[in-house]
Amino acid sequence: LWGLRHFFYYALPWLPERSLPADNWSGIRGICARWSPDWAIPDDEFAELVRTFEAPGTLAAALGYYRSFVRGIFGRASRETALLLRRKTTVPSLALAGGADPALYIGDFEAARRAYVGEYRVVEIPGCGHFVHRERPDETAEAILDFLGPASSGGSDESGGSDESGGSDEPSEL
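RESULT FIELD:
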């Protein structure tokens, strides 16, 4: 449960709204530093992140994730949450895991495998922290593209018929 302490903190009614933006959003910078210790968020990217969180409703929406989790476990919705958690996911799913993520361990992803009946693939990116898509965008894209499979080649339209344009990617005039 120690690893989930942030869930309970961010679920508090007013404290996160005050603490996260304090001191030029140092709370968010601290999250980045703790969860991805070998990655320093670039200043321009951090500035964009702050602009996003300052947009009306954004911080409340982000905290709503944590609040709904806690309400789902302990609140009125706990019965419905328990029923949902027993259902198996049937769609193919990809989990990207940072090998050096102190918030989510690779074993957590492997343990989640029991919740899937369809394809469930875990890709560990060694040496990466929590923010895999920001720390290693090329490896993230490669893993996603590999999971999705090869792109279909030209030559047929969506209905399976022949492509009358001769397979060219250039727009044709009518």
